[in-house]
Amino acid sequence: MFAFIHKLGSPPHFWRLSGTMVPWFSWFAVVLIAVGTVGGLWVAPPDYQQLDAFRIIYFHVPSAWLSQFGYVVMAAAAAVGLIWRIKLAHAVAAACAPIGASFTVVALATGSIWGKPMWGTWWVWDARLTSTLVLLFLYFGYMALRAAIDDENRADRASALLAIIGVINIPIIKYSVEWWNTLHQPATISKIGKPSMDPEMLVPLLVMWLGFTFFFFAVLMVRTRAELIARERNKKWLREVIGRG
Amino acid sequence: MNEWPGLGTAFWLQLTRDLRLAFRHIGQAANPLMFFVMVTTLFPLALSPAPELLQAIAPGVIWVSALLASLLAAESLFRQDVEDGTMEQLALSPQPLSLLLLAKTTAHWLMTGLPLVLMAPIVGHALFLPGDAVPETMLALLLATPVLSLAGAVMAALTVGLRRGGGLLSLLILPIVMPVLIFGARATDMAMQGLDVGGVMYLLAAILLLAVSLAPAGMAAAMRISLD
Fold it and tell me: B71 pLDDT band (50/70/90 cuts)?
């Protein structure tokens, strides 16, 4: 077990492993998102209240989930890097921030587009929306701090600390719809026990969610490989695998 | 190791040293207070001097101005000590760095946060805040301004070595302290309407306790990274 983790922390091993995994993850993502899109836009019946307008849920919920999950992955990688001084973990955290920020933007944009016909407004200052906006600011702060420090080692550790501090916001977003009486509807997927959705609607959503998550990890690995090329550019192993001196 | 002063003594010495330094540059320490007063005077000038309008926006204006003033103050918190090497000596000393930085932050709050609390009645009066809401606002500010100082101190410790730290510091502090702004403005707003502010006050107090217990560790960790 520990040997496996230890091996995973070494950049050359990660390079080989991610090299074989990226195509698999990408194809899973493509197939699942295609199936989920067909299922969500054509197979699933219209909502009895929101009619066809609810179909944006198939993009909104997975990207909102990844906006939070991306932050947790980033903070966890940052913590691993800070505590055990694993450079690869810092590279993962650095690669994760722009992806998470992008999904946050997509979640906010699709939410606005959904909110316009349903609530009659693009934006309301309710707890879920505001805390998601704060999440976007946290991503921006993280990326700005990383960009402001020239020394790579210091940038890694300072931004890691910032990412860990920002984790406070994640439970606030998660439970904002339960703690406060908000306009935003409560969670759709979490009730695995007795789903609040018809299976015909729920299955495409789960497929989409899985597809988006595979996509997230595929992009994360590609970006981490790019980070490694930048960080390990003078290392012998990288020259060997890339094949150029 | 008995020749080292105890934790309480170390805290006290650091606190009095910082206060003495601040009093010798009293003009610099008063800047955030001046800023607080000036920002609040901008609103009647920019919007309209109508009492009803000012009364409606008073909670928001007071809290946003206090937040901005604390941002301005955070910038100078550790800078001088890092530049002249004092901070490295503190980091090397046998006393816990978190304790010494907490002492520095306490001194900083006494010089920049407490004056905002004391100035709040005057600013509130100028914005036609009802007299009944003033004690609650002051109590809420008393609970909230230390949180602003502590959060500012953690972020200031993270960015202290950077040449282009200014705008970045605001970008880092603001998302973290937004809950304080929400609950603080809510306390003033509820007090204006004659509602019971107990719940909001307890929340602010809980945030303060959380900040006092976690922020010193964060400051010390951040400072050690910055000093590297």
Answer: confident
> Could you say which of A144, A165, A172 has the minimum Cβ distance to residue B171?
A144
| Distance between CA atoms of residues B112 and A133, nearest Å | 29
- Token look-up 């699933």 returns A44
Contacts of B226 in chain A (CB under 8 A): 154, 158
User: CB burial class (10 A; 0-12, 13-18, 19+) of residue A143?
Assistant: middle
Q: Distance between CA atoms of B41 and B179, rounded to whole angstroms?
A: 25
Domain with A69 in it: what CATH number? 1.20.120
CA–CA gap between residue B199 and residue A179 (Å, rounded)? 14
Q: Using a CB-CB distance cutoff of 8 angstroms, which residues of chain B are in contact with residue A157?
A: 225, 228
Structure tokens at A52: 């066809």
* Count of C-beta atoms within a 10 Å radius of residue A70: 24
The shortest CB-CB distance from B158 to any of A162, A168, A169 is to A162
* Domain-located, residue A95: yes
**What is the extent of the structural domain holding A128?**
16-242
Nearest partner of B108 among B68, B145, B83, B142, judged by Cα: B145
Contact B179 A172 (CB under 8 A): yes
Instruction: Note whether residue A1 is domain-resident.
Output: no
Test B174 with A149 for CB contact under 8 angstroms: no
Nearest CA in chain A to B176: A166
Model pLDDT for residues B144-155, shown as the tens digit of each residue: 999 999 999 999
pTM score of the predicted model: 0.87
Mean pLDDT of B155-177: 84
Phi, psi of B226 (to 5 degrees): -70, -30
